[in-house]
Amino acid sequence: METAYYKYQECIEACLRCAAVCNACANACTLEADVQKMAACIRLDIECTAICYNAAQLMSLGSKWAPELCKICAEICEACAAECARHEADHCRDCAAQCRMCAELCRKMSGTHTA
Fold first, then answer.
1. CB–CB of 70/106 below 8 Å?
2. Is residue 57 part of a domain?
3. CA dist., res. 104 & res. 75, Å (int)
């Protein structure tokens, strides 16, 4: 019998990587010269981290709510990616790339994937 973790392993791991990268981005943003300019980025990084951890947890449990939460996770990841892409810092660029990858896998998992 395939456990939920193995069934959703790729998406779970993407969510966990995304959460870690978003945490690192938020932290690095607090060290920028103009922290106020980074406020929206920091806020979205924190929101993205929270939803990614929760999505990974529900997927690993095989929760019936996991697909719906992954749909929301994809939306937040996309918003975070868009905000991070507005900034030149490497940590923001890396975060945007990871968020896009996570959003793609979450959409695929939730059944809302568009080719």
1. yes
2. yes
3. 10
Cβ(41)–Cβ(24) below 8 Å:
no
Q: Give the residue-averaged pLDDT of 69-94.
A: 97
CATH number for the domain harbouring residue 20 = 1.20.1270.360
Contact call for residues 79 and 68 (beta carbons, < 8 A): no
For position 1, what pLDDT does the model report? 54
Residues 6+ apart with CB under 8 A from 11: 55, 56, 59, 70, 105, 106, 108, 109
Inside any domain, residue 115: no
Angle at 70 between CA 48 and CA 49, to 5 degrees: 15
Boundaries of domain holding 62: 4-110
Number of domains in the chain: 1
Mean pLDDT to the nearest integer, 57-86: 96
Question: If pLDDT is split at 50, 70 and 90, which confidence band does 110 have?
Answer: confident
Is there a domain that residue 56 lies in? yes
